[in-house]
Amino acid sequence: MIGNQGQTLKKQFHKGEISLENQEEITKLSETFYVKRTSIEHLTNLQLTKNIHANTREEEQRQRKEKEYNAYDWLNLVLEGKLNTLKVCELDKYIDENKLCKKGKKKDKLSAIN
Q: pLDDT at position 21, please?
């Protein structure tokens, strides 16, 4: 699966034109190109992994947004130098609660809190 053959297989896979369930299409491709079933299995696994990572990121974002101000140990985050591990939406919770200036980028918000 080198060069244009690999690109053709990838394009067909991402367009949904070929999948492990479509044995007829796999056979047809195998006759045209040298394509192994493992190549399609590999693309399927890559797609599944991509979807899992995307779902995990979405869930983490949702949890960060829903987390309340009081759920953070702000003093320890400052003392341990871990404020920079927080996302902007989390820093905004501290800024809103303490009525600090909310303008600027993450670096500016970190400076306002420290």
A: 75
Instruction: With a cut of 60, say whether residue 114 has pLDDT above it.
Output: yes
Question: Are 112 and 100 within 8 A, CB to CB?
Answer: yes
- 106, 95 in Cβ contact below 8 A? no
CA quadruple 48, 53, 54, 58: dihedral, nearest 10: 140
Q: What pTM, to 2 d.p., does this model score? A: 0.56
Report DSSP state, residue 17. S
Q: How far is CA 92 from the centre of its chain?
A: 22
Sequence spans of domains, the chain: 1-66, 68-113
As given in the structure block, the two tokens for residue 111 are 């400076």
The pLDDT score that the predictor gives to residue 17 is: 75
Strands (E), the chain: none
Contact 112, 83 (CB under 8 A): no
What letter does residue 104 receive in the DSSP assignment? S
